């Protein structure tokens, strides 16, 4: 009877060494093959509990909660400034399955900031966004854009209150021209007012009212 022997599949030695290590509990800094380093707690060879991860390629740092090898719980993520090399906080808040999820604060370039709810790494739910030009949006978000009901306040204090879709004014809404003392109320479609009424509103307190008041119908 002919017996055929097949060669056993080989694997890198570090796989075997890693199994034998069976990291569990609090450990000192552990270095990955690519140079990444982690200091903190382990369970069954997975990052689990409190720990700090440093990525060698980007220099980014995450410090916070881990669950079975993924960021899960509360933690902060920071990156080094390309010029000063000082660390700048990018996100502080809750994570789930390695993505932003729950309440958190994100700091963008140009001093922009978002405070609010996240889901699967995207802005979802209720939140407030501070833009570089001084505008502030507060309201509902959907798939990383304003969607639902919200208010946008401009640097000159004029504001829009109403519906949003895909980041644009959409549906019933009111635009307060506080600088002129007027109020437009109507229907918007993709940031464009389609129909509505314009009346005087706070004309006596307006810094730059129109020359003639709008007559009442």
UniProtKB/TrEMBL annotation:
Q: Does the keyword Secreted apply?
A: no
Could you tell me what this protein does? Answer: Assembles a suppression complex (suppresome) by tethering SIRT1 and MDM2 to regulate composite modifications of p53/TP53. Confers both deacetylation-mediated functional inactivation, by SIRT1, and ubiquitination-dependent degradation, by MDM2, of p53/TP53, promoting a proliferative and cell survival behaviors. May play a role in the regulation of spermatogenesis.
Please report the name of this protein according to its UniProt entry: MORN repeat-containing protein 3
Instruction: Give the matching Gene3D superfamilies.
Output: Histone H3 K4-specific methyltransferase SET7/9 N-terminal domain (2.20.110.10)
Natural source organism: Pelecanoides urinatrix
**Localization terms from the record:** Cytoplasmic vesicle, Secretory vesicle, Acrosome
- The main location is cytoplasm
Its Gene Ontology cellular component terms are: acrosomal vesicle
Q: Which UniProt keywords apply?
A: Cytoplasmic vesicle, Repeat
